[in-house]
Amino acid sequence: MSESMSRRTLLRLMGGTAAAAIAGPTLSACSSSPATSQQQQNSGVQLPSYIPYQGVKPDLAPTKDGVMSGFLRYPATPIVGIPDRPGTGSEELTAFIQQFRPIPPAASRNEYWRNVNDKLGVTLNLQMVPSANYADKLPTVLSGELPDFTMIVNTPNMPQLLDAKCQNLSEFLAGDAIKDYPMLANLRPEAWRTTAFNGGIYGIPIPRERVGVIWFTRVDIVKAHGLNPAPATFAEFKELAKGVTNPKENRWAFHGAPGVRDLILRMMGAPVGWQEEGGKFTSINELDQTKQAISDTRELVKAGYFHPDTFTQGAPFKDWIGGGRVVMVADNYSAWPQYVTQNVKPGSPVQFDGMLPPKYDASSTPNLGRGVPSFSTTAFKKTDDKERIKLMLRVANYLAAPFGTQEYLINRYGKEGVDYTMVNGDPILTSKGEVEHTAEFYRIADAPWPLYEPGHPEETKKEHAYQVKAVPMTLANPADALYSETYNRKRNTLNKLLDDALADVLQGRKELAAWDDAMDRWRKQGGDQVRKEYEEAFAASK
Amino acid sequence: MNTTARTRTNGRSPAMAPASVPIKILKAIVLLIACGLVVMPFVSVISTSLADQQQITDAGGYVLLPDRPSLSAYSSILAGGVVARALLVSVGIAVVGTVLGLIVTSAMAYSLSRPTSFAHKPILMVVLLTMLFSPGIIPNYLLIKQLGLLNSWWSLILPVLVTGFSVIVLRSFMMGLPPDILESARIDGANDLQIFVRIILPLSKAALAVIGLFFAVGFWNSWFNALLYINDPSKLPLPLVLRTYVVDNARLGAEQLSGEAGVLPPTQSLQMAILVISLIPILLVCPFLQRHFTKGVLVGAVKG
């Protein structure tokens, strides 16, 4: 697309999202059944070979089913994983990324950033947008010339967008071609699968782990009440909730009623996301199990086991569980280090652990939802310059260097003595490092996550032990590997419809029957179309 | 002379007679409660910004009076110079934008307030249209890009330099000025520019103060245009930088937190400190404009 703004361009852009506009011609070409077409094309994509990086030996071994590597200390002599600088020092690359933390100082006043640029041999410019406003800014970025790297998260018309403006990387990455980039070869195939579009590999995945959501529990509080922090049955779970709740002491069992609903579904052993039986898809929200779980959660809300402000948006639940105001919360596995560093101090009784779902009844087999394999895709700007693509891949390879390497220290912690110091074998950020290292290069390319709690090796062991039990219980959403354009486009609307209905029922504003009405609306407003697209895509993948 | 007559002689109506002591005490209590209700949230915000994690946990979120006040939340936010620089950027944008906005808006309002000025009706229609229709994000973005203003502070000022609302308000005010004054000035030989600068602007001080305050607050709070048009972190204005603290709960990207993170200020303190920082400049400006602001409001009230 030309950079100048023609009348046609303007009208197209005004008529829909930039992605839709860019993808216009391509979209019409495959409008008959884009999901089927995508699945047929993608099922034949040759993914990069998986070659786990062997340069660093973890203290606690990973497992094939997805338990993460554990490290009790940072390796005393970090290995140099990438001997050569990716660039020559004269190249410049730009990346558009979501910013999840405060904006860092600009590179000119940021030693950490300059050090990364120096080691890369590339001037890496970051266009950072606060994560909450990513969807607002992305269309403007897509409406012009793309930056070299673009972080893409669930945008409408993704296949068409990638086809029109982004580079097919299959030639450089498929099969053993990835051996030129050993740190990228260290990413699991299930993460690469999320980058397969239009019959090719259209980016770098930002990998995430299988463990997913954890039920963080303040074990010290539970034990102090003489209760079992690992209840075996739903009845025991309710006893636990009742036992630890005491409004006079400003303490409640839970924060997050939707999370408790999900936990009860896991107790029942319900499917995750969608149920697939013989090629027929049923949303988990349509199952009787969900209605039962909502009903049970409503009873727990009525019983007063939830923090009174639990339904407030943006509730500071991390502070609540840290301060002992709530005893159990659902949070992502990535939150564990934060809970530890902010709350577990020498002499403090605070103890966290993950709770596994107890049995709902005698016949149930509890499970856990598997984490999505990738958080986002880093797309490369389309270009005929193969050397530039290779340079970008070398940069991504450097940024994906795993824990234990010198490159990881540079990418995550900065310059020793300036941004961090080694204390008892752990890199500890200085106050300068705290401010500077919020430049999130790992949104461009990331390594598999390690289990690592600086200064708290016993917590690392605890997390590893939890994962050894939890990860084999995880169940993937069958729709995770499928593409639905309707869901990509209507995701927010459909989810909000159900979230609002759930909040109404749980807070007692409406009866349980309101959930059925909401599901009717959900089907009409796009749920049935999503189901149809998943079924077609599933059939095409066979 | 009866009592009423005596009261009137003293210049007071019966309603204004001195209240009894119990009534005075009651009034004082009511006023104190009312003031307390207004002041308390401010005190709580400032106190929480000075409190540590333990006090926030004990108080259940908001602290009324901190036991061990600490400025760590402020020093944390201001460390690295990002917020301090963004503060300067925002002050610059607010000052330049407000001055330019007032110049352009008042000139336009004056010309549109003169019934004899050239094509004032079609131009007024165009101004009104901007209040009814918005061009949308992407066309605006493309326009800014075509003008070469991406990554420039002018992209935050020029698109909102003239707003239909301000022009209409100021135009209405200027239309209410006595035409005799303008006529006499013209008879004395003043041209339009002289009339505008020497007569219209001084007489419109109250309205200009109100519009100026609107401009200043608008520029100070604007973040969305910065989100779209500014990529260089050193050029970002304060609201956008602070938003990353508030929206994403500050340093909560857990994966890189080190042992030192344990001594970081609590999230609640950081967020309240951000509120205080973002409020201070506008709070400082308000008292200076309040006198004119009151006049501006009263002009319409006593007219007629």
Question: How would you sum up this structure, described in words?
Answer:
The complex is a heterodimer of chains A (542) and B (304). By secondary structure, chain A is of the alpha/beta class. Helices cover 40% and strands 15% of the residues of chain A. Chain A has two domains: 44-208 and 373-458, D-Maltodextrin-Binding Protein, domain 2; 213-370 and 474-541, D-Maltodextrin-Binding Protein, domain 2 (3-Layer(aba) Sandwich), CATH 3.40.190. Chain A has helices spanning 7-15, 18-22, 24-29, 34-43, 111-120, 134-143, 158-165, 170-173, 189-193, 219-224, 234-244, 257-268, 288-302, 317-322, 336-343, 386-399, 406-412, 431-436, 457-470, 485-506, 513-541, and strands at residues 70-71, 91-99, 122-130, 149-152, 196-197, 200-201, 204-207, 213-218, 252-254, 274-277, 280-283, 326-332, 352-355, 368-369, 374-380, 420-423, 426-429, 451-452, 474-475. In chain A, strand 5 (196-197) and strand 6 form a beta hairpin. In chain A, helix 4 crosses helix 21. Chain B has helices spanning 3-9, 21-50, 53-59, 72-78, 82-113, 120-132, 137-146, 154-157, 164-175, 179-187, 192-203, 205-221, 224-229, 238-247, 267-301. By secondary structure, chain B is mostly helical. Chain B has two domains: 19-70, no CATH class; 74-251 and 262-301, MetI-like fold, CATH 1.10.3720. Chains A and B meet through helix 1, strand 3, helix 6, helix 14 and helix 15 of A and helix 3, helix 7, helix 13 and helix 14 of B.
